[in-house]
Design goal:
Elements: H1 3-16, H2 21-33, H3 35-40, H4 44-56, H5 65-84, H6 96-112, E1 117-119, H7 120-130, H8 135-138, H9 143-153, E2 157-161, E3 164-167, H10 170-183, H11 187-193, H12 200-209, H13 212-223, H14 230-243, H15 252-262, H16 271-280, H17 296-301, H18 312-334, H19 338-345, H20 353-361, H21 368-374, E4 386-388, H22 391-399, E5 405-408, H23 414-420, E6 428-431, E7 450-453, E8 459-461, E9 473-476, E10 481-483, E11 493-496
Parallel strand pairs: 4-5, 5-6, 6-7, 7-9, 8-10, 9-11
Antiparallel strand pairs: 1-3, 2-3
Helix pairs in contact: 1-2, 1-4, 6-10, 7-9, 10-12, 11-13, 12-14, 14-15, 14-16, 16-18, 18-20, 21-22
Length: 502
């Protein structure tokens, strides 16, 4: 399901269940912020399960990924049938622990073989090999009958075709496969595959399932691998750091070594470091830091010294903090998942213009309304152009009360822009598309003082701008021929755009 599908599903599920809309909106926020929930909710069955789990716990969900999966599995494998009383005399009854043991064998076979599904016959054969070790299950039916029971009653398996089987959601395959790997002490195999994208969840869940000595072996093996590329090494170090949240107990020296290796990249301090994080992908979002309480320049400006009286060390510290904030935002805006919005919202109160520019430029990469409400609406407006690339963004800006500085970054007609913005608010306008060179429509903005024209047209006629009395500054690209300059009043200044205008 898409993001909009999930929102509709959650709202309607709560309406059908007669549950407060507040629960629905709280759950939607959790699904958007928590990557684990977001991945699960894309499946209708799992979305309904999350709704039920959220309602069952009176509006609260388990905090950790492992706890979420444990609760979901318990609801699917045990509570669902027990609480609905679906059992009949003579029917197969398999306890929760045995259910998990059987299904995790299928999951790990699929992971080891790089498969997202397996032949139905292979699944039955695997169960047949496992049943002799589970006499209480084996006495209830053949491997074929046990397979049919797991398929119908577990809620985890399905048959996409007559001859194949897969998991209803990949996350459960990874979760249960990781459990099987840990129980089988298959740590060398896990370490050898940890640099691969598709093994990320398996590794994280293996750390969650492991005991103290097993975690030490797994994490040290991951961070000390030396047979991978530089990109692979970055990924291993960051993955190990992301695993720490699942390590409820860990040797302090191992934890410190993992953190020390990840600290070389987080927070990013250069464009190259930021790009390295972007290449690693969404796992990075869990590691990106919060901004400092306030930019150092604001703190120094509140003491008895002037800004220019700071020492070189203080200036360097300010620059370092500002660079870390900027490159953190730079990385997060390019890992454009819903979970990135929560990271970026932390920086919405940051004063640095580079950070604010990066935040507004990223708007088109995310959901217009969610990103607008969580980030754009809260940004400081000083010297900041809010870009609008479509009518929905323009409408959102108007709903925030309008903006004084707007950059038209998409295709609009003059009429669409006039109808969509709050005209009395606008003081600075930047045009990157050719709305037309009559310019008479600009007369509708009573306080427009600055106009920047970034155009592909080879020639511009400035004469019509004389009909926009509030205008004081007109900025034009270098190399564009202009005419009508002598028609402009003396108080209007025409300047050429610098190459670093943005």
């Amino acid at each position: 399901m898409s993001r909009d599908n999930i929102a509709d599903f959650v709202i309607r599920w709560h309406q059908a269940a007669g549950i407060s809309d507040q629960y629905a909106h709280e759950l939607l926020r959790a699904v958007r912020v928590k990557q684990d929930l977001g991945r699960l909710a894309t499946n209708p069955l799992m979305c309904g399960l999350i709704c039920a789990l959220h309602q069952d716990r009176h509006g609260y969900l388990p905090e950790g990924r492992k706890e979420i999966y444990d609760a979901a599995l318990s609801m699917l494998l045990f509570r669902r049938d027990r609480e609905r009383g679906v059992y009949k005399p003579g029917s197969i009854r398999i306890g929760e622990a045995h259910h998990i043991q059987l299904i995790q064998k299928l999951a790990y076979w699929m992971i080891r073989n790089g498969r997202s599904e397996m032949d139905r016959a292979d699944a039955v054969n695997l169960l047949a090999q496992a049943l002799p070790t589970m006499p209480k299950v084996a006495e209830q039916g053949t491997a074929e009958e046990i397979y049919r029971h797991l398929l119908i009653r577990s809620g985890l398996l399905r048959e996409p075709s007559v001859q194949s089987m897969d998991f209803i959601h990949r996350t459960f395959q990874d979760y249960l496969g990781a459990k099987a790997a840990v129980e089988g002490l298959d740590f060398d195999f896990l370490i050898a595959n940890a640099h691969l994208d598709q093994w990320e969840d398996v590794i994280r869940m293996a750390v969650a399932h492991s005991r103290l000595t097993e975690r030490t072996r797994l994490l040290t093996g991951i961070i000390r691998r030396d047979n991978v590329t530089a990109h692979g090494m970055n990924r291993l170090h960051l993955l190990a750091a992301a695993c720490l949240e699942h390590a409820t107990e860990l040797d302090p020296e191992v934890r410190a070594e993992v953190q020390q290796r990840a600290s070389a990249l987080i927070p990013p301090r250069t464009a190259d470091q930021a790009r390295a994080l972007i290449e690693v992908g969404p796992v990075v979002l869990d590691l990106l830091p919060y901004p400092p309480e306030a930019p150092l320049v604001e703190k120094w400006s509140s003491d008895d010294r002037g800004i220019d009286e700071r020492s070189d060390e203080e200036k360097a510290a300010e620059q370092r903090v500002a660079d870390e904030a900027y490159f953190t935002v730079f990385a997060a805006t390019r890992i454009a998942t819903d979970a990135a919005i929560d990271v970026l919202a932390r920086y919405r109160g940051y004063h640095d213009l580079r950070v604010r520019n990066e935040l507004v430029r990223a708007w088109s990469r995310f959901d217009t309304n969610i990103y607008g409400q969580e980030v754009i609406a809260h940004l400081g407006q000083e010297r900041l152009y809010d870009p609008v690339s479509n009518p929905a963004e323009l409408q959102a800006i108007s709903s925030f009360g309008g903006r004084a500085w707007i950059k038209i970054a998409g295709d609009f007609t003059a009429v669409e822009f006039l109808n969509g913005c709050r005209q009395a608010q606008l003081t600075h306008l930047w045009l990157t598309s050719d709305i037309g060179d009559s310019w008479r429509w600009l007369r509708e903005f009573p306080h427009l003082r600055s106009l920047t024209i970034e155009t592909s047209l080879p020639h511009l006629d400035m004469a019509p701008l004389a009909l926009v009395p509030p205008l004081r500054t007109i900025t034009l690209p270098r190399g564009v021929a202009v005419s009508g300059m002598d028609s402009l009043p003396s108080y209007m200044e025409v300047v050429r755009m610098r190459h670093d205008t943005e």
